[in-house]
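Reply to dn_fold:

You asked what the input looked like. This is it:
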Amino acid sequence: MRKIISFMHISLDGFVAGVNGEMNWIKVDEELFDHVGKRISGTDTALYGRATYQMMEGYWPTAADRPNASKHDIEHSAWYKKIHKLVLSKTLQEADLSDTTIISNNLATRINEIKQQEGKEILLFGSPTATHSLIAENLIDGYWLFVNPIILGQGIPLFKDIKDRIKLNLLMSRQFSNGVTELSYLVDK
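and this is what came back:
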């Protein structure tokens, strides 16, 4: 069975974005991009909430075509164009989107059907609202977190309205030279 892994940058105090959705506090560099690029290259499906998907669609399909495209832009653009995208949205229409499946209702049933299909792990990128919906339905199998060395004090939390404890098993951790710490967990089901 395929697993859904939530991929997030997070502040030390548990926020994935500032109060207004700002993410300018996230530390990224070539070392981090290369590491993430290796891991996601083995993934064939990405899961997004509507807002994150629209942000990704607005940049990644043509990012490699820009004259000043970085190595990361070129590699991630190629990856983005070849993967299947799942989007949680009640407003987007599937008809005009290529290699994209919209999930607008019956979340648990639809996601469990997709998890039974052939394929590799499904990476849930950012998308705090989608993450909250999937946590509520007990559909996330793991967390791939990049803890940034900052305390925001307030913002959009990764975890909210948790009704039952979620036990995790640490698979690995890694410290990057920019101060970010990677933590990879599987949910103990």
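The chain has a mean pLDDT of 93.
Hope that clears it up.
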